[in-house]
Structures are given as structure tokens and as C-alpha cells.
Design the sequence.
């Protein structure tokens, strides 16, 4: 290979520090289409508070209440315990992978699905976080309408969308963490107050004895297993873990592996929130335990206006993450598929408009169907990613190859993902499928995706394309910045490549990706 800056190659323009233009630009975009250099990583509490905005979503209380209402409190508690353990173990792997590589979930999955195929990851995350933004905003609108019953709910949908917008414009590097760290104590105080008030009004342990509205003889599988499968519908947290873990500083990785992304987080996310949801709904709405808005009604019944304040705090915290993820991943899709680059803050406005339109469709009416479908896709994604991690040890340390020019547009792995997801959706929706198999549809996607992708790895997945590589032309590819000939900005050498369309001039991955469109 020719040496760096040889007469045969365009000269590499280098620098040993960040490009100030890139730093300013990425303050809002958080390197949504780039590898995150070590110099752009954020402090431990800044990252933890940003990621932990997930903790206060009403959907986690709803999940606990739903599983408890369907299969009984005791089976729900077992399902929650199984979920805490499984999520903690799986996300420990994804957190480590994201922290070591500096890659978001889309770039990390390019090796498995192809430069274009991986954009399906971003599309699904954008779609699902937009859906969750709709759910959480609708919850807030329902809470406000409780005090203005004569108002059309659509008026509150519009008010919530407009008022939430200014608070959704932050990024992990700016004030997203500050917003959530201020609101977190208010959320904790509110939840504790709601539980105390409900316990005073409805003393005793009768809520623990509830056996569920689905009789034991009508269950295709044990209740605890059905509940655990229902919790698999939120595997969206796995790629979300990668998207946040990539921003961790090397010196903080041990802390994040022990605290931010593992069992303390999931004990709170599922166990604390789930038990609170079960208790509140059973204590306050014993005659209507499966109401979609039961958690909202329970909070308003126990705390009154204080419950409304709690819901506002909760929805502000979680929607800061929903809008951040939706806009960041939508930006990745637009760059990869259409070669279009739009500022992330503009896309926040777009997501807000989409969320408002979706609110008009009554999101609660198709909640369980949406959760089932998204669960199938993300369970398959997780299965394929973990299979690759286990079978390709060379891709573990610093992450797999992700540069667009060195990978095919689509891979056989994408075919496995689509096939296994289609199988899961078919089992979920087809009327002729036996009940136990229909209930186990997410598990069926694992059974299909793992061996099929393992076969792909052994027979179809070769090494990425080789060629002139700027990484090999500098002494420290993680600490050297190179100028891209297209955008004329400097990015860390780890993401740079040579552009054969421009006499092998250096090109950043975002520009190389856009050039494939």
C-alpha cells in the first residue's frame, strides 16, 4: 500500500484536535451520522441523566398494570423479575459494544445488514419512538381533559404538541441531562406520594391476591411466561442503549456498566414502575383493571392536581428522549437512503407534527397490536446482533466495520431479519395459528433468526472490502482528524475512507454514505 501522502495519493490534511466547526455543528446533532470521537464523549452523570429519562414514562406503569390485570399480580411479579434479569444481561453486552466502538445502533448494525439495510434499524427506531411520543403525549392530553370535560380532546392534543416542542430541542451534549436531572426528584416524590395515598385509602394486601381477568384454563402458556413475552415488546431499549452508550468516556465505562445501563436501571424501570402501576390500578380501579388510561385515572384519583403535575413531569422527561431518538434516527435514514442532510432540530418539529396527526387516530385503540409488531422486529434485531457478537470475535473490541464504501448495500443478514420478523408477525396475526404458538411469536423469531444468521455468518459473510485505508496511514487513527474532500470538515480517522470517485481523496463516512444514494 502506498505510504501516507505519497505522490500516488491525494495529500491527507490532518489535525490533532477537533474541528471547531464540527464541534459546533454536532452540539445539536450528537454525531448522528458519525462515529463519536473520544473528545466528544460526555461526563458520567450527564450521560446517565439523559438516558435515565426513560425511567419516568407512563408506559412502564401501564405495562405492569396490563400484565397484572391480564395474568394476576403474582405472575406479573415473576414476569417483571425475569425481564429485569434478561434485559440487564443483554444490555450489558450492547452497552459495552457501544462504549468501545463509539457507533450508534445503525452504524453498528451495518456489518450485519449492509450500508442501506441497516437504515431499517434507524427507520424502526424513529417510527417506534415517534409512536411512544404519541402515547405519552396522548396520556398527558387525557389527564388535562379530565379537568375540562367539555373541551374536545383534539384541542388538548394540539396544546400538548405545541407546548412540548421547546422542551424537546435539547441533545445529550446540551441541556437534555439538566432538564431530566431537575425533573427526576419531582417524579420520585410524586410516585411515592401516589403510593402512600392509595395505601391509606385502600389498606391491606388484596391487590397481591388478584388472579387476572384471563382464567388459568384460557392461557396458552403459564401467566408469568406470557407476561415476560409481553415485556419483550419493548426490546427497543436495546438499540437505545447503544445510541447512548456510544457517548460514554473511556474512564467512565466501568461506572456505566455497573450503574447506567444495567440492573439498577432495570430494577427501577420495570420492577419499581411495574409494581407501582399494578398497585395503583388495583387499589383505585378494581372494577376496571384493564382500562387503557387506568394509570392516568389512578394518579388523578389519588393526587388530584398533584397527579396532573406528576404526569406533566413524567411526560416531559420521557418525551425528551422520544423526540431525540426519533429525530436522530430519521436524520440517519434521510442521509443513507436519500443523501439528504437536515438539521436534527428541524426534524424535531417534523416529528412533533407527525405525533399530533397520529394522536388524532386514538393511539390507545391499537396499543397492544403496535407493541406486538414492534416487539417482533426488535427481538429479531437483538437476536441477530448477539449472534454476530458471539460468532465474530474480531468485531467485539472496537466494533465491526461500518464504513459505507467497504460494505454491500444489503446483506443476507437483512434477509434473515425480514424473514424472522415476517414469521413472528404471521404467527401473531394469523387466525389459524394454535394459541400457544401465537402467544410465543417473539420467541419464535429467536428460533428462526439465530440459526439462520449463524448459517449466514459461516457461509455468506466474508470480510469487508479492502483497499486504500486512511486508518493505516496515520499513527493514531483514534486521535487524528482528517479533512473530508466533500464537506471540507475534519473527522476522526477511524471513520474516514478513500473516495475512488475523487482520485482516492479522503472522505468522511456521512459523505461516503450520501454518495451511494
Sequence:
Amino acid at each position: 500500500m502506498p505510504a501516507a501522502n505519497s505522490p500516488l495519493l491525494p495529500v491527507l490534511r490532518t489535525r490533532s484536535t477537533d474541528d471547531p466547526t464540527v464541534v459546533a455543528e454536532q452540539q445539536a446533532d450528537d454525531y448522528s451520522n458519525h462515529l463519536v470521537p473520544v473528545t466528544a464523549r460526555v461526563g458520567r452523570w450527564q450521560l446517565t441523566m439523559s438516558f435515565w429519562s426513560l425511567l419516568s414514562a407512563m408506559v412502564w406503569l401501564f405495562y405492569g398494570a396490563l400484565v397484572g390485570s391480564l395474568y394476576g399480580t403474582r405472575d406479573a411479579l415473576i414476569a417483571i423479575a425475569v425481564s429485569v434479569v434478561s434485559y440487564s444481561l443483554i444490555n450489558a453486552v450492547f452497552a459495552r459494544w457501544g462504549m468501545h466502538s463509539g457507533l450508534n445502533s445503525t452504524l453498528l448494525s451495518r456489518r450485519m445488514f449492509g450500508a442501506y439495510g441497516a437504515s431499517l434499524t434507524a427507520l424502526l427506531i424513529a417510527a417506534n419512538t415517534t409512536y411512544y411520543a404519541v402515547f405519552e403525549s396522548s396520556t398527558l392530553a387525557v389527564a388535562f381533559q379530565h379537568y375540562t370535560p367539555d373541551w374536545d380532546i383534539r384541542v388538548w392534543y394540539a396544546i400538548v404538541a405545541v407546548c412540548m416542542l421547546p422542551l424537546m430541542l435539547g441533545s445529550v451534549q446540551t441541556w437534555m441531562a439538566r432538564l431530566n436531572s431537575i425533573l427526576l426528584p419531582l417524579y420520585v416524590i410524586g410516585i411515592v406520594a401516589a403510593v402512600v395515598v392509595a395505601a391509606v385509602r385502600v389498606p391491606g394486601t388484596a391487590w397481591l391476591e388478584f388472579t387476572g381477568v384471563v382464567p388459568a384454563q384460557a392461557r396458552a402458556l403459564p401467566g408469568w411466561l406470557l407476561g415476560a413475552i409481553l415485556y419483550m415488546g419493548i426490546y427497543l431499549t436495546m438499540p437505545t442503549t447503544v445510541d447512548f452508550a456510544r457517548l460514554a468516556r473511556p474512564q467512565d465505562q466501568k461506572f456505566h456498566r455497573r450503574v447506567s445501563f444495567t440492573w439498577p436501571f432495570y430494577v427501577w424501570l420495570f420492577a419499581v414502575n411495574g409494581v407501582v402501576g399494578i398497585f395503583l390500578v388495583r387499589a383505585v380501579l378494581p372494577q376496571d383493571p384493564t382500562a387503557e388510561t387506568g394509570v392516568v385515572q389512578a394518579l388523578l384519583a389519588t393526587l388530584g392536581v398533584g397527579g396532573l403535575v406528576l404526569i406533566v413531569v413524567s411526560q416531559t422527561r420521557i418525551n425528551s428522549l422520544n423526540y431525540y431518538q426519533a429525530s436522530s434516527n430519521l436524520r440517519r435514514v434521510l442521509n443513507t437512503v436519500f443523501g439528504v442532510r437536515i438539521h436534527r432540530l428541524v426534524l424535531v418539529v417534523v416529528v412533533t407534527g407527525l405525533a399530533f396527526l397520529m394522536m388524532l387516530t386514538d393511539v390507545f385503540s391499537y396499543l397492544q397490536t403496535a407493541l406486538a409488531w414492534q416487539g417482533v422486529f426488535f427481538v429479531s434485531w437483538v437476536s441477530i446482533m448477539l449472534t454476530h457478537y458471539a460468532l465474530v470475535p474480531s468485531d467485539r473490541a472496537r466494533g465491526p466495520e461500518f464504513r459505507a464504501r467497504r460494505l454491500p448495500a444489503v446483506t443476507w443478514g437483512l434477509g434473515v431479519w425480514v424473514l424472522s420478523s415476517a414469521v413472528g408477525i404471521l404467527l401473531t396475526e394469523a387466525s389459524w395459528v394454535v394459541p400457544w404458538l401465537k402467544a410465543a411469536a417473539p420467541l419464535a423469531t429467536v428460533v428462526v433468526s439465530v440459526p439462520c444468521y449463524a448459517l449466514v455468518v459461516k457461509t455468506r459473510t466474508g470480510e469487508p472490502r479492502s483497499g486504500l485505508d486512511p486508518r493505516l496511514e496515520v499513527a493514531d487513527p483514534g486521535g487524528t482528524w482528517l479533512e473530508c474532500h466533500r464537506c471540507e470538515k475534519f473527522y476522526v480517522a477511524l471513520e474516514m475512507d478513500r473516495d475512488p470517485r475523487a482520485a482516492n481523496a479522503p472522505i468522511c463516512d456521512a459523505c461516503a454514505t450520501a454518495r451511494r444514494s
Q: What stands out?
A: Residues 62 and 277 are 6 Å apart (CA to CA).
